[in-house]
Amino acid sequence: MTATAARPESAVTAWRSPLTSYYLLAFATGILLIVGLAVVLSSSSVASIRTGSSAYTGFLTQVVALVVGLAALTVGSRLPVKFWKRIAPWVLYGSMALLGVVLATGYAVGGNKAWIRIAGFSLQPSEIAKLGLALYLGVVLSRFRKRLTNPKDIMVPGGIMAIVVIGLVLAGKDMGTAMILMVVVGVAFWVAGVPARFFGLAGLLLAVGLFLLVLDADSRVARITDWANGDSSWQQLHGTWALASGGLWGLGPGMSREKWGWLPASDNDYIFAIIGEEFGLFGTLVILGAYAMILIAVTRIVLRSTDLFVQIAGAAIGAWIVVQACVNIAVVLELAPVTGVPLPLVSSGGSSLIMSLAAVGVLMSFARNEPGAPEALAARTSVVRRSLAVLSPRRRRG
C-alpha cells in the first residue's frame, strides 16, 4: 500500500521538477532526429540512385546538417538568456540581408524563390528569419510592453519589422513560410499582451491579403480549389495510400513502396507519409507524441519564467515548431491544401534542420534558466562528480 501510494507522489515530484522542460525538449528532439534520419535514409536513397549518385548521398548531406545543428543546439543551450537578447537584432538583420540576396541572385525550387548558394551549399535564409524574428520580437515587445495599447506603438518597431520580413519572403512567392512567420508574429504579440481587439482587425486584413495572394498565382488557386472540392492531387492521394498501407505496425524500416517514384518529396514535405508506411500508426503516434512534449515544455517555460523576453520569444519559437508540424501533417492527411513546409527536425533539408535545432537550443537555454533550474543542474553535476570520485581507483598507501 505504501509503495503504491508513493508512485503518484514521485510522478508529481518529477513533473514539478525545474528541469522537466529541459529534459522534455531533449527527449522529444532525440526521438524526432532518430526517426527522421532513418526515414531520410530510406526515402532519399531512391532519388540519389536516380541521379547517378550513391544511395547514401542524400543521407550523408542530412548527417552533415545534423552535426552542424547539434553543435548549434549544444552551444546555444548553454548560453545565457542575456546573450540571446543582445544577439537578437543581428540575427534578424542578417536574415533580412540574406533575403535581399535571395531576391537578387537566388534560385527557385517548386516555384518558390527562397534559396541561395554559399560555398557550394544551398541556404534558405527564411529559416534564419524565423528564429531572428522570434528573438527580435521578444526583445522589443518586452521592452515596450506597457505601451502596446495603440496602433502606433504596436507597429513601431515590432510590427513594421515583421511586415518587412514577411514581405521579403512573399516576394519570393514562398507563401507557406510566410504563413508560419505570421503565426510567430501573432503568438508573440498575444503573449506580449496586445489587446484582443487589434487581433480582430489584423485577422480581417490578413484574410484579405491572403485571398489576394492566392489569386495572384493560378497554381495556388488550383490547389485550393481541388482540395475544397475533395479532388486529391497525385501527391496527396499517394500520401494517403502510404499511410493506409502501413497499417498498425508498418511495413518495416526501408520497406516503403511509395518512395519508388510514386510520392514526390517523400523525404521532405511528405516524410510523415513514409513514416506511416514503414512504421505504421504506432510510428506516427510517436511523432505526434514528440511534438506534444515540445508543446508541453514550451508551455512550462512560458508559465514558469519571470522574464517577459523568455515568455514572448519562447512562445514564438514553440509556435513555429509545433504549428509548422501540424500544418505539414494536416497536408499529408488531406486536411489542408498543399503548402510546401517541411516537418521540423524530421524532413530532409539542411537549412531547416540546422535552424530548428538552433531554435531548440534557445528553448533549452530558456529551460535551464527556469526558477530553480540552475540550482538543480548544479546539484546534479556535483552528484555525478562525487559518484565518479567513488568509482575512481584509490591511491595505494605507501
UniProtKB/TrEMBL annotation:
Entry's EC annotation: 2.4.99.28
UniProtKB keywords: Cell cycle, Cell division, Cell shape, Glycosyltransferase, Membrane, Peptidoglycan synthesis, Transferase, Transmembrane, Transmembrane helix
GO cellular component: cell division site; plasma membrane
Pfam families in the cross-refs: FTSW_RODA_SPOVE
Coiled-coil positions: none
Reaction(s) catalysed (UniProt annotation): [GlcNAc-(1->4)-Mur2Ac(oyl-L-Ala-gamma-D-Glu-L-Lys-D-Ala-D-Ala)](n)-di-trans,octa-cis-undecaprenyl diphosphate + beta-D-GlcNAc-(1->4)-Mur2Ac(oyl-L-Ala-gamma-D-Glu-L-Lys-D-Ala-D-Ala)-di-trans,octa-cis-undecaprenyl diphosphate = [GlcNAc-(1->4)-Mur2Ac(oyl-L-Ala-gamma-D-Glu-L-Lys-D-Ala-D-Ala)](n+1)-di-trans,octa-cis-undecaprenyl diphosphate + di-trans,octa-cis-undecaprenyl diphosphate + H(+)
GO MF annotations, alphabetized: lipid-linked peptidoglycan transporter activity; peptidoglycan glycosyltransferase activity
InterPro entries (alphabetical): FtsW/RodA
Cell location: Membrane
Transmembrane region(s): 21-43, 55-75, 87-109, 115-142, 154-171, 177-193, 198-215, 270-296, 308-333, 345-367
Family according to the record: Belongs to the SEDS family. FtsW subfamily.
Primary role: Peptidoglycan polymerase that is essential for cell division.
Name of the molecule in the record: Probable peptidoglycan glycosyltransferase FtsW
Record lineage: Bacteria, Bacillati, Actinomycetota, Actinomycetes, Micrococcales
